[in-house]
Amino acid sequence: MITSTRRLPTLLSRRIPGPVCRAYSTATSYSDRVPTNDPNPPKPAQNVSETNATPMEEWKRDADMVESTEDAEKQRTMQAPNRAKVWSRSQAPRELAMSGPRFEQTIMEYQPQPLAAIDLIHKQPVRWTSSKVVSCDGGGGPLGHPKIFINVDKPQINWCTYCGLPFAHKHHRKFLESLPRTEYPLIPTSDPAEVNEEQRVQPNDPLGQR
Fold first, then answer.
1. CB atoms < 10 A from the CB of 201, how many?
2. Mean per-residue pLDDT, 156-172
3. pTM of the predicted model, to two decimals?
4. How far apart are alpha carbons 86 and 116 in whole angstroms?
5. Is residue 177 within 8 Å of residue 186, measured between CB atoms?
6. Cβ neighbour number for residue 120 with a 10 Å cutoff
7. What secondary structure, in 3-state letters, does 183-208 show?
8. Residues 6+ apart with CB under 8 A from 30
């Protein structure tokens, strides 16, 4: 028993193999291989990046980001591209908001410049009606507003207090046409901002979009 116990470490040491040293070689590409007198040389593999390369006739570069000083100052002081001054008491003038070190080296042409909705709504023609009271819901659908009722019995243009659409009675049309100027056009002018009455959402499609 003692003899078999003494031989156990020796047997275990024989069973555990030691580190094996193997030859390490790296595969070289065909372009780095030294040319030999091989009668059947291997064909070089095609480079995928070369097949996907886009041919360019000439070298091009981006245009310089330069703008005119006069145009930049006009865009900085204009409240909107279609309006020069503010239209609300709570609105800050653009010439004060777009000032300071944040906008010293800023190209104003690339800054957000949405059109003023207060001027766009005045491009809408008058909706003529034969009744003394009309209703307006902004065209219906999720982009509309709560329905309100507007009295049009006076000889003037009456607009919706939500969306600003104008309404007037047909009986006062001649009087309004005799005025030298009106806030809203009396007839359609084919302006790009004009919204036709046919764009109203139908009652059977309450979630439709205009």
1. 19
2. 91
3. 0.55
4. 9
5. yes
6. 18
7. CCCCCCCCCCCCCCHHHCCCCCCCCC
8. 42, 44, 45
Residues 86, 118: Cα–Cα separation, whole Å: 10
Question: pLDDT tens digits for 56-115?
Answer: 666 556 566 677 778 888 888 888 888 888 888 888 888 888 777 777 767 777 777 888
- 16: which DSSP letter? S
Q: Is 13 helix (H, G, I), strand (E, B) or coil?
A: helix
Q: Which residue has the tokens 């047909």?
A: 170
Residue 17, both tokens: 């193999």
pLDDT category of residue 117 using cuts at 50, 70 and 90: confident
Cβ distance 106 to 113 under 8 Å? no
Please choose, from the candidates 59, 97, 60, the residue with its C-alpha nearest in 3D space to the C-alpha of residue 77.
97
